[in-house]
Amino acid sequence: MKWLSILFIFWTLPAFAVQPNEVLSDPKLEERARDLSQGLRCLVCRNENIDDSNAELARDLRLLVRERLVEGDTDEEVLDFVVSRYGEYVLLNPTKGGSNAILYYAGPGMLLLALLIGGLYLRTRARATPEGSNSLSDDETKRLKQIMGE
């Protein structure tokens, strides 16, 4: 029974998809490749980085990143190349500029707009005179008594 629990523990550990034949011989380049791969999304698995994915496209992306690093590209050049090829969706943490700025700033902007409109509404409600507070003039009071038959 003990071996079953040990097997279960190893079975639940994350399986990393980087194959031994993909690993670079230079440890510094391999570390850079791993860092870059952590920020790239597998386009098949969605919210999984390419290091953790077993998909064929993720493998191709891992190889592409390593190939570009071996050619001497900087980290930014590698990311720019991958984004130009697959689009900004490939980044797990998209940039905050360009068209993404709308997504980042629309929520807080709408909240501020709602607070402004709510504040203006409450301010105008506070200034409004209540309906029952209008008192009758002396002439209106006399006329009312006359109508009521007093």
From TrEMBL:
Record's Gene Ontology CC terms?
plasma membrane
Q: Which residues form the signal peptide?
A: 1-17
Q: Give UniProt keywords alphabetically.
A: Heme, Iron, Membrane, Metal-binding, Signal, Transmembrane, Transmembrane helix
- UniProt xrefs under Pfam families: CcmH (PF03918)
Looking up InterPro entries in the UniProt record yields:
C-type_cytochrome_biogenesis (IPR051263), CcmH/CycL/Ccl2/NrfF_N (IPR005616), CcmH/CycL/NrfF/Ccl2_sf (IPR038297)
| Residues of the CcmH/CycL/Ccl2/NrfF N-terminal domain | 7-148
Q: Which PANTHER family match?
A: CYTOCHROME C-TYPE BIOGENESIS PROTEIN CCMH, CYTOCHROME C-TYPE BIOGENESIS PROTEIN CYCH
Q: What does this protein do?
A: Possible subunit of a heme lyase.
Tell me which family the UniProt entry assigns to this protein.
Belongs to the CcmH/CycL/Ccl2/NrfF family.
Q: What is this protein called?
A: Cytochrome c-type biogenesis protein
